[in-house]
Amino acid sequence: MKTVTATPLTREAFAPFGDVIETAGAESFLINGGKCRRFHDLARVEAAGADARVLINIFRAEPYPMPLRLEMVERHPLGSQAFIPLAPRPYLVVVCPDEAGRPGAPQAFVSHPGQGVNYARGIWHAVLTPIGETQDFLVVDRGGEGRNLEEHFFDDPFEIHLPDMP
Fold this sequence. Notes:
The chain has 166 residues and is mainly beta. It contains one helix and 17 strands. It has one helix at 11-14, and strands spanning 2-5, 7-8, 18-21, 28-31, 36-39, 53-61, 68-75, 81-85, 91-96, 98-99, 102-103, 107-110, 116-119, 124-125, 129-130, 135-143, 150-161.
């Protein structure tokens, strides 16, 4: 089985796949009479196709055994999909570049507590994978007509390892 070891999630490393949603380094300004700081334009939300609309959901995800046996990835051709953790705990992010309509070799990241991700439209990614315990996420994605889910099952699964974590 091929193995991949996750690395820390950064804006630069994740840029080919979408956006890292975090306040560090973001454009910000005060609103509401100076009582609230707005961290502005953190991710590009995409919703294409007939009767497309943006959905806001909460997903409650259970952890998988580690190392993760990656047998399947999915993508959403008609819209982006953002995951924002509702607790300051890390989770595993696995993405694959597109290679002629099929996923290439996976890349894996471990989020810092509080970081979210926004998978750009059409990006291959693993399912939501919290580390260690059940976790809630605010999820922003696309609703509307059209098939917005493609799945790919690998002939030879990958084994995704977490880095040594303090």
